[in-house]
Erythromycin esterase family protein (Aquibacillus halophilus), 425 residues
Amino acid sequence: MVKKIIQAVQKYAKPFQNSEDLTPLIDQIGDAKIVLLGESSHGTSEFYSVRSELSKRLIMEKGFSVIAVEGDWPSCQHVNRYIKNYSNASSTHEVLKEFKRWPTWMWANEEIAELIDWLRDYNNESDLTQKIGFYGIDVYSLWESLDEIMNYLEKTEPKGSNIELARKAIACFEPFNRQEDQYAISSSFFSEGCVEEVSKLLASIRSEQKNFQVQQESDLNIKVNAIVARNAENYYRAMVKSDSESWNIRDRHMVEALNEIRSYYGDDSKVIVWEHNTHVGDASATDMKQEGMINVGQLVREQNKAEDVYIIGFGTHSGTVTAADEWGVNLEQMLIPPAQRGSWEDIMHRAGAFNQFLIFNEENKRIFSELIGHRAIGVVYNPAYESYGNYVPSVMSNRYDAFIYIDKTNGLHPLQLSETSIIKQ
């Protein structure tokens, strides 16, 4: 089986060295409105740089107007405001310092800084009535989103009903000292938590959304922050009870936030999504299905026409990666061992030890329909134990529409690599 798949990769994959070599992939995307770009780690330089080049071409050649990423809404709003000249920030690096939640290197890095500079210049030089946007669609920013809501309401309706609801929500969470784990344990085992408070806040904001200022996207900002507060409360409450359910809540939230952005930009808007392969690669084509887990890629496909969605996965055989060996500790530059024998990355490497991309189509889809281990590296990573949980059994031609393989990769470049420069094997 492996030999036949290697031969098929050799037949159908195309080598690439630069953005221009990816033109067949751009052409294949066609008129899709949602392009999801994955990554097999959150700490690989080439994944970010290739996604940047693809995003630039999609913006310039296909009319895409939004980049939505696996990041917090409030932090990404600093970027969005900066590239649209809504803020007084003096530099890109100053803006990226707003990414304070661990792992900061996911967005506070040199590769993203280059893209943000490009987006700002593109917006400044273009005559678009609606500038290119950059948004975070993740669910973690419970406290920050509540702060954003309060700051806005204190300026615009200091005596209104919404601010009273916001105060009640904040007061409900106050005993937990902004510690998500404390709230998760308490709400899951000892009380119903603050679900009523954040639900009423969101319902009120939605009912009065026409009254919010449209200037500098204030209306979208308060609405999505309210959605984050409601869904984050649900996520943290589920977190200690069920990994599968909390995962599903998170990915449903990301799709809900994505749909809000698309609605705001208009029915014909085109969106690029940057997230890990485990989020964008259709979960129904993996063993996640057996665990009752869904993800962004699956939901987006289910909610839209097939021709409107295009998913691209990413992977590597070996190199280095920026990651940590425990949650919340300092980052390291770790060595990625050669891919496990018989895995998808191993097959791509044996088919040709060079950068290449593979488009799945009617001609070759059946050939790539075997269940194969596909490497996934998280922000917490231990290369020594990689074979015990870093490979997701996947039907690659169903999980993605195309796959970009980079044979040897390098760790991401954080803005300040001050924690450590250890190379860990």
Q: What stands out?
A: The first strand starts at residue 14 and ends at 15. The chain has a mean pLDDT of 93. DSSP finds 16 helices and twelve strands in the chain.
